[in-house]
Amino acid sequence: TVESKKHARYLVAVWGGGAASHIPCKSKKSVQNELRKLMLQGIALKDIAVYAVEPFALQVSVRI
């Protein structure tokens, strides 16, 4: 079994300048902190997406 506390539950995706990056987060509070940091860096909300990630999906994506 996969323990959800060990894996990221949310994924913050950022598009900007032709490149994409992602930031794994374990809690809603950490997502809010990352959004705050990104906005302070001048990144527009339209360039940010937050996804809920299932631990199994995260595990499969790493193995592919």
Q: What is the terminal-to-terminal distance?
A: 19 Å
Low-confidence stretches: none
Series of secondary-structure elements, N-terminal to C-terminal: EEHEH
| Domain module count | 1
- How much strand content do the residues show? 25-35%
DSSP helical segment count: 2
Proportion of helical residues = 25-40%
SS elements, strand count: 3
Order of strands, widest sheet: 2-1-3
Shape: globular
What value does the Rg take, in angstroms?
Answer: 13 Å
On the 0 to 100 scale, the average pLDDT is 79
Instruction: Give a short account of the largest sheet.
Output: 3 strands, antiparallel
Give the structural class: alpha+beta
Write a concise keyword list for the protein shown above:
single chain; 64 residues; alpha+beta; three-stranded antiparallel beta sheet; 2 helices; 34% helix; globular
Describe this structure in words.
By secondary structure, the chain is of the alpha+beta class. The chain has one domain. The chain is built from two helices and three strands. It has helices at 28-40, 55-63; strands spanning 10-16, 19-25, 48-52. The protein is globular.
In short:
With 64 residues, the chain is an alpha+beta fold. The chain has two helices and three strands. A three-stranded antiparallel β-sheet has the order 2-1-3.
